[in-house]
């Protein structure tokens, strides 16, 4: 059995980011930028007013003075003349500041009358002027490659005058649930049947990570069905299977894929839940074989499928997003398997936030999993801990799952 860390390393080392495609700006949200976005203009393009008021010479705009208003500069209609001594030009937010002016007299600090305006508050030089290039200059890098685009990044790219964005293709992940006993949700349930929760749970995880899930029809415990699914997966960036990973005589994933070109990298890791994890390749297509127990499938999804999706999406490698938390209950010592306990984030009697592991940690219990806020990490051979100790946890909300 290899360690969780080694397994992650081997998975990530064998994956490469998906190639790039060009998408319209509006479809760029949540995609990963493949090349930097560079400003195609300077912003603001000229010195502009930040307020509605009057463009003035600060030296003349002292309290009590009256200035002659010689024109107007609404946004989009620059005033072509110059602001001379004792003069003012009516100006609106966003409009270029005319030649000669070095400050804006706020409308609220002025009284207009006839062809003049009275200054009610002395204006400081430079006041309410946004200088050209204050935000960015043509040629500046606005968004770095390898960043998942937020709504704010889309706004910045738009301001930089980009209608299209180069992004990595979203990884397509084929998901195959195996097992004679497994039926799709909503179908008639034969005696001994189990409804497949794993495929749709993993599809939601893939979506949350920015990938495109392709849920394949369920394959029974026979070589033909699993092999046919393998062929369907060749157009995807990865095949993820659930079930059939362990040592039972019906645990067929590896033997069924072998005639289709499957080569194993590793099988079994020192982890709980999720010991019988499979990693290999079907010719060019990476294969991640997750255990059938639903909690094991999801926890392995968090630990291995999630980082794999990040790498395929073009994001830089990042460690598991662990945060430190105060333990809300005593824990026994751990054995040699790294453990990920289902846990809730709660508030204790003193008002402190604490992490409390669920009392039942069975890897078949989906209700406990769905009620958990976090996975509490216990390293191999971790000593017994008392409530109040500090422990590493993965907040499931950080992953959007
Ligand atoms: N003798 C041993 N038995 C088992 C071992 C072991 O080391 N020695 N490992 C156990 C562990 S740990 C796990 S985890 C499971 C995983 O086994 P498989 O990956 O082969 O999974 P299956 O046997 O096919 O199914 C296990 C369990 O999960 C249910 N299942 C399967 N697929 C789905 C699905 N799509 N949705 C919901 N539930 C599913 C299935 O009905 C079984 O109840 O093996 C232990 N055994
Ligand atoms: O890990 Mo099994 O994955 O312990 O239930």
TrEMBL record:
Q: Which Gene3D superfamilies match?
A: MoaB/Mog-like domain (3.40.980.10), MoeA, C-terminal, domain IV (2.40.340.10), Molybdopterin biosynthesis moea protein, domain 2 (3.90.105.10), Molybdopterin biosynthesis moea protein, domain 3 (2.170.190.11)
Q: In which pathway does it act?
A: Cofactor biosynthesis; molybdopterin biosynthesis
Provide this UniProt record's keywords sorted from A to Z: Magnesium, Metal-binding, Molybdenum, Molybdenum cofactor biosynthesis, Transferase
Q: Name one GO molecular function term.
A: metal ion binding
Q: Which InterPro entries match?
A: MoaB/Mog-like_dom_sf, MoaB/Mog_dom, MoeA-like, MoeA_C_domain_IV, MoeA_C_domain_IV_sf, MoeA_linker/N, MoeA_linker/N_sf
State the Gene Ontology BP annotations. Mo-molybdopterin cofactor biosynthetic process
Enzyme Commission number(s) of this protein: 2.10.1.1
Domain of life, source organism:
Bacteria
Q: Which cofactor does it need?
A: Mg(2+)
Any GO CC annotation of this UniProt entry: cytosol
What is the designated name of this protein? Molybdopterin molybdenumtransferase
